[in-house]
Amino acid sequence: MQMKLPAFKMTDQNGNIITEEALKGKRTILYFYPRDNTPTCTTQAVDFTNHLEELRQQGIQVYGVNGDSMKKHQNFIAKHDIGFDLLVDEDYKLAKELDIYKMKKVFGKESMGIVRTTLLVGQDLQIEKRIDNVKVKNQLTELLDK
């Protein structure tokens, strides 16, 4: 059962407004991650950056999404040389619509937050694949069925 990506309006790390229209006509990896500059989130962003050329050759663009500020995104990109834009999901609006923002347990403590999720969105904005509770180590293999 395919689902269409909901309409959204977010800013990237530079304050540019990005809407679902920016995704039309290209396949897009839209991945949701909890926080900038944490070990697993850094590994995930660096992994996408390391495979960016290969993804672009397949006509796939990448966006990372979480609730962190533009400034935090800028620092994260600069510190780890991330090669794609990070979007600010203010108030976790899109994450909530996609049921990605929910109660989770981290180190035995329950709190609301983004559950690491990756979407492969088609040119027509249909979600072709959704991976919940992503395991960063094999995310691209699982996503692209390599």
Automatic annotation (TrEMBL):
GO cellular component: cytoplasm
Keywords (A to Z) from UniProt: Antioxidant, Disulfide bond, Oxidoreductase, Peroxidase, Redox-active center
Function: Thiol-specific peroxidase that catalyzes the reduction of hydrogen peroxide and organic hydroperoxides to water and alcohols, respectively. Plays a role in cell protection against oxidative stress by detoxifying peroxides and as sensor of hydrogen peroxide-mediated signaling events.
Entry protein name: thioredoxin-dependent peroxiredoxin
Oligomer status and interactors: Monomer.
Enzyme kind, highest EC tier: oxidoreductase
Keyword Ribonucleoprotein: no
Domain named Thioredoxin: residues: 1-145
Catalytic reaction list: a hydroperoxide + [thioredoxin]-dithiol = an alcohol + [thioredoxin]-disulfide + H2O
Domain of life from the UniProt record: Bacteria
Gene3D superfamilies hit by this protein: Glutaredoxin (3.40.30.10)
Active site annotation, chain numbering: C41
GO biological process assignments: cell redox homeostasis; cellular response to oxidative stress
Originating organism: Macrococcus hajekii
InterPro entries tied to this protein: AhpC/TSA (IPR000866), Peroxiredoxin_AhpC-typ (IPR024706), Peroxiredoxin_BCP/PrxQ (IPR050924), Thioredoxin-like_sf (IPR036249), Thioredoxin_domain (IPR013766)
